[in-house]
Write a structure and sequence with these properties.
single chain; about 525 residues; mainly beta; Immunoglobulin-like; 6 domains; 5-stranded mixed sheet; 38 strands; about 5% helix
Amino acid sequence: MDRLRRKMFLTVVFSCFIPCGAAFWYTVKKRFDGEILPKDPTLCTNQSITFTAVLNDDPVTNYSIGFTYKTRDTNGEYVTVDQNNVTYINDTMAEYTVSNIPPLTDLENPHYMFVNSYYWQVFGDNNNTLQLGKTTAARIFPMPEEVRNFDCKVMNYETMKCSWNYSTDYGSFMPEVFFQWRNPVYSKSWTECKFLNTQDGYCTWNETKAGFFKTSNITIRLTLKQPCNINVTSVFHIDTSKIVKPNPVSSIRSNVINSTCITLLWETTNSEQFYPKEHLITVSSQGVPVTNITLITTKDTESMEHKQTFCDMHPYTKYSFNVRIRPTGLYSGYFSDTVEHTTTTYSDIPSASPEVTKGGYRLDHRECEDGSERRRVCVFWKPIKFEDQNGPMKGLVGEFTALPPVIHKVKNNWTKDGMYGCSTILCNTGYIFTIKARNINGTSEEGSAVTIPAFTKGTARPQFIVESTNSSDVFISWTYTGNDTPRSFLVAWCRNENGDCRPGHEVGWREVTGNSTEITIFY
């Protein structure tokens, strides 16, 4: 009985052992030993790279090597490489080449390309038991390029600064920068820049050797290196005696002589005073053309105080003076930074007066026809231009001088912002009206004038006929019954119903000459 049980037990165990062992063998065979090269390379854009997958086991029938990759452009998912893009070297080796890596679109975050290799029977079966080796991660950097706009300046004959612009935006992938220089007269070895600012792109250094920067020919080597082992080097040859930039001028000030002249004074005590320089003075003011004056000094006059007098300027006007200097002769180079000084000329009497408008005045002859000895007249003018005021305005002076010249005058003072003024004058007397401007310094010399003729009773008034065909224009015609035809007619019109044209009421007026008997008014 015990033997029978043992026999049955063995039978059961044996019958179970065969299929279980077969399943275990199949699982082991699906794990393949292999690798993918290169491991975690560093690349630059525009480069190409070839990934090589190697099967370290014996090849299996109907199996082949394949690749998958993942970048930001695949939305974080692995994509199978098309079989036509895989090159099979033999049964245990295959290659996948990525050509001309595109430029980076995000320059702030790290950019990787992840690549896997598989030994699969079904193309695209990304079962991790089929993976050959670990995933390789290729990090990508921008391609380094030669710098541009390289420029060096010797600051006041003592300190040198070289600056440049990068040809591309590297973002957080800034390459390593090496700035080296040498002077073959002093040494053949390269010297590293001690004060290098790679982010802003400049290098500065001081030289203790007397006169080093004044007569030196320096060679500069500027290298940009990315982790992808690509270097770009630019070489520059600099004659330092031709790139001097002196310090700005100092103690700049001015003396206002009168309303049209200013003397400007300045010094160069903060700059090297043993060498001649060109002094450029730029004078400007609002509404006035810019003027440039050049003053050339010698080694004997450079250390003196400098001055320049400017005349023919406008009264009561703010002027800006910009002064900068640059070396001449043995040493040359750049203009210094600009120093600005502003000052204002003194005020003066107005240089012009308000201009009386064409036609110039309005009066009502009915006042004289009714037996009155006086008539009211209103004169119109254009406001004085700001540039002619020459100082704070106080008012306007209007003067009626009788014709022929007699003692009789009528003088009026009006506000500075007025555009017309009214006064009372004699009916039987003609006048010359003159308007002048007055400010804190006095009254303008020349005035704008208009002649107002005397009233003659024999002068008949024309009879008017007014017609209108629409809402936008009016036709006026008249007949004149006087003995002597006047040289001109002065026509004024109003929109008020009673026809009483007073200052502020009138819409307009027009002087008509010759034998015209009709005018058209548009409103």
